[in-house]
Hints:
heterodimer, A: alpha/beta, Rossmann fold, six-stranded mixed beta sheet, four-stranded antiparallel beta sheet, 7 helices, about 35% helix, B: alpha+beta, 2 domains, 14 helices
Amino acid sequence: xxxxxLRLEQVRKSYNVxxxxxxxxxxxxxxxxxxxxxxxxxxxSGSGKSTLLNIMGLLDRPTSGRLFVDGQDTSALDDRALxxxxxxxxxxxxxxxxxxxxxxxxxxxMMPMLVExxxxxxxxxxxxxxxxxxxxxxxxxxHLANALSGGQQQRVAVARALAMxxxxxxxxxxxxxxxxxxxxxxxxxxxxxxxxxGTSFLIVTHSLEIARGCDRTIELVDGxxxxxxxxPTAA
Amino acid sequence: MNRWMPFEWIAALRFLREGRxxxxxxxxxxxxxxxxxxxxxxxxTGLQANLTKRVLSSQSHVTLQxxxxxxxxxxxxxEDLELAIxxxxxxxxxxxxxxxxxxxxxxxxxxxVAVSPVAAGSALAVRGDATRSVSIVGIEPDSYxxxxxxxxxxxxGTVRLSSQDxxxxxxxxxxxxxxxxxxxxxxxxxxxxxxxxxxxxxxLGSRPVNERYxxxxxxxxxxxxxxxxxxxxxxxxxxxxxAAETVARRLQTMTGAAAYSWIxxxxxxxxxxxxxxxxxxxxxxxxxxSVALGIASVLVVSVIQRSKDIGILxxxxxxxxxxxxxxxxxxxxxxxxxxxxxxxLGAGGLLVFHDHxxxxxxxxxxxxxxxxxxxxxxxxxxxxxxxxxxxxxxxRASRLDPVVAIRG
Lengths: 235, 408
């Protein structure tokens, strides 16, 4: 329990609360993700994966239930505290890589640190360069984000997610828009980061190949976890 | 990235730089608006200063005079009036009571810059067979010339006013056919002066003044008008020319004398100036409004275009306040850069206008007034307008739900 980087207790999420059109998307989710775990969240479209990911990433609040991130109960936190916790403890990798095109690759990786500290400094530049070098992107550091290929952008996004040394990285279909080779490369890179740094990863994916490569698979169907184990539930 | 620059400034500058065409167009729009405001303001300031200077070249800001004599109806017992019709009394030339003491009090007033007693009345100027009715202004040159700068408006001769000297206007000199060094005589209702020597001929830019006014020493005027030891008015220059009416009302209450400001005595001129200022102010307001709407519309579009970027930044821990500031800074920068460019354009336009639009004789039509305060005010106004215009889009950006923003 103490080593859980993420824990959800009876988390429910409804939309249009109090209206005739009220609908519950997540039905009492109980889930724990241990420190250093590398897990996949799978499920059919409309099962509530993105909603659950947003709640786990503190981008959205549950209608009821409790959520612990890095041991901290988030239910009583205000918007400012949630933002601060999100910035420090959670890294995001989005499906459409979503780098900020006004900045270079290096600056995109520096961005979470810059947001946190307010002013740029050498330490954050060194950290960003170290991450880019580790991911084989040092020669692209001064290129604007939209001058990079899809695979390169996604690797920069992974580097950015790791910049604050977060306890947890949430990745929403990180290989969904990449060709097979690039997708494998990005996945292997995340695995290696997980092995080396002990950062927990939760990857939302439709790909069973990706899911098979994870230590644990969590299957969500109709807003409920129907399976959680070490192997994919379907082949 | 500059070390001294905070995150919000870095992001704001990068966003402006990335959308450079959009940024350039809105800065151009703001610049044109500011140029119009600077051009109009400076032109109007020059025009009004010139007109005011011309009006005040021959008169004081405030004049203190004895109150008019009024008829007091005789009364019977109680409230019954004996007379049904009360005739207005004739107004004699009278002196201001205790004027020497009053002058000392006025000299100590911080709102008053210069004080000068005057003995004035009417007379005939006689030169051979030619006569002309004139207004005598008996003055103490040292104090009076601080109020009406006669020595700066001399067409011929040198201003010198010893007891037998006189300074006349160009029109009167022409009527009487005299020049500097010639002599003339003044005849009031009670006395005739000895021969007075014309030491200078003035041109105060006003035909009636040049035709009617003659300046002689105070003592000569007192003798000629049978006002020995008396003055008919005290002329004042005050620090703020546009506060003349307020100062006049205060002095009237304080001294008991009648006080007339140049604003009251030139009411039509002043209301024309005010109407001009008002209409110009309305135009400037609408220009500023269009500048604000331009900035707001560009930033609204920018927020929509950058919603994903905002979503990512929010997911990375950017607070609502930081997001708000990123867009407010963009508004301020657009306003400030527009103000600098616009001020330069406005100043350039003024120089071209001043050089090419001139009177028939080649002299300037409107004086060029380029005050630093105008440019500082334009910069502040534009920056503030930029910030205010950016408020709505910035609030919208700061309230964006990161989930919705990232999803697009």
